[in-house]
């Protein structure tokens, strides 16, 4: 799997190529979930991964050793979205019980709730933490985006929206984006009360926004929508660069996509249950994968069924991405395939 921090930093300098993407295969899989994985997050510096599952569990993994360090159950509240704070064993997560939409700050070290954040009145569908301070934002089906400080239970700000919001901070924590209704609205985090300083169109796609994200260098952003579109834009000018299309997702699901560490590729789930990768430079699909961990088992009916898309995230500074469905899979390059590519050149 992935080595220590210094080794991960060395890997960042390697150029991620189409051949490396095409060689990716499952290197490790965890099959002990009794429900679908609904969310996962990598800690920025520690090499930890956290997952949330419909089996009402939160699990902490050490990526370098490919081991599950801890499982914590949230039977009373359920769990839907989960994000690391700056601390590698503290997370914020949303409920999934239908009667309490509070967000919770949880210590995974001793399984203690440190704080409750009450304010939403419907399911929280988007959550983003500021990497530079203690603030975070949450978006809900109650058509509000709330701004929070981890150190206090009281909401610090409220923005009303006209649809299902997708939200994200940029890597510097200076700007955040709110997407809904076919547009991405850009806010200065220090002066959000003044409204958006830019509004970018996504080409008339007015289907529900699912996920909005910035690339690591902040130059690009992506937006996924329920109709199965992944839009890539220049985050400074709002220029629409490309749109990738996958099978639409069921109405109760979220289509997730992720930039590779250097921002040159986009990987995404799909309503057909597969994962796909595209080159940002060419706009072309470069690879696709079935999510079943047994390569010999093929579901020939996948094209005719509505399937929940896998949760998908690229590991920071690493030649690895992770997918979550009813299994958690770590995808790494197959070195034997890469040797074959080199031999052909």
From TrEMBL:
Q: Which PROSITE patterns match?
A: WD_REPEATS_2, WD_REPEATS_REGION
A Pfam family the protein falls into: WD40
Q: Which GO terms describe its molecular function?
A: chromatin binding
Q: Where in the cell?
A: Nucleus
The protein's matches in InterPro entries, at most eight in alphabetical order, are given as: Swd2/WDR82 (IPR037867), WD40/YVTN_repeat-like_dom_sf (IPR015943), WD40_PAC1 (IPR020472), WD40_repeat_dom_sf (IPR036322), WD40_rpt (IPR001680)
UniProt GO cellular component terms: Set1C/COMPASS complex
Q: What GO terms describe the biological role, i.e. biological process, of this protein? A: DNA-templated transcription termination
Which keywords appear in this protein's UniProt record, sorted alphabetically?
Nucleus, Repeat, Transcription, Transcription regulation, Transcription termination, WD repeat
The answer, when asked if Transcription is one of the entry's keywords, is yes
WD repeat positions in this chain? Answer: 30-71, 117-158, 258-288
The principal localisation class reads nucleus
Give the protein family: Belongs to the WD repeat SWD2 family.
- What is this protein identified as? Anaphase-promoting complex subunit 4 WD40 domain-containing protein
Q: Which organism is it from?
A: Gossypium stocksii
């Amino acid at each position: 799997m992935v080595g220590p921090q210094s080794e991960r930093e060395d890997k960042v300098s390697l150029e991620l190529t189409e051949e490396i993407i095409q060689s990716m295969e499952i290197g490790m899989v965890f099959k002990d979930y009794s429900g679908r994985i609904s969310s996962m997050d990598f800690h920025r510096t520690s090499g930890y991964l956290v997952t949330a599952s419909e089996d009402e569990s939160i699990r902490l993994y050490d990526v370098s050793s490919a081991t599950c360090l801890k499982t914590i159950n949230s039977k009373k509240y359920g769990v839907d979205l989960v994000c690391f704070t700056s601390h590698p064993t503290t997370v914020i997560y949303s409920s999934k019980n239908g009667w309490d939409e509070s967000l919770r700050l949880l210590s995974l070290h001793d399984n203690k709730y440190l704080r409750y954040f009450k304010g939403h009145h419907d399911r929280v569908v988007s959550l983003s933490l500021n990497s530079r301070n203690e603030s975070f934002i949450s978006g809900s089906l109650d058509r509000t985006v709330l701004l929070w400080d981890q150190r206090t239970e009281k909401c610090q700000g409220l923005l009303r929206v006209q649809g299902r919001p997708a939200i994200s901070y940029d890597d510097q924590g200076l700007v955040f984006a709110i997407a809904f209704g076919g547009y991405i609205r850009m806010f200065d985090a220090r002066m959000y009360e003044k409204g958006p300083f830019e509004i970018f169109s996504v080409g008339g796609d007015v289907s529900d926004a699912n996920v909005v994200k910035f690339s690591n260098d902040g130059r690009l952003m992506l937006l996924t929508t329920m109709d199965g579109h992944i839009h890539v834009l220049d985050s400074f000018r709002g220029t629409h660069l490309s749109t990738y299309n996958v099978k639409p997702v069921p109405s109760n699901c979220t289509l997730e996509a992720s930039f590779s560490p250097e921002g040159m590729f986009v990987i995404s789930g799909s309503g057909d249950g597969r994962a796909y990768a595209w080159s940002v430079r060419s706009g072309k699909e470069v690879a696709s994968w079935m999510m079943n961990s047994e390569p010999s088992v093929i579901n020939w009916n996948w094209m005719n069924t509505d399937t929940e898309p896998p949760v998908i995230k690229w590991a920071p500074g690493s030649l690895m991405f992770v997918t979550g469905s009813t299994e958690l899979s770590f995808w790494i390059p197959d070195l034997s395939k890469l040797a074959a590519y080199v031999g052909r050149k």
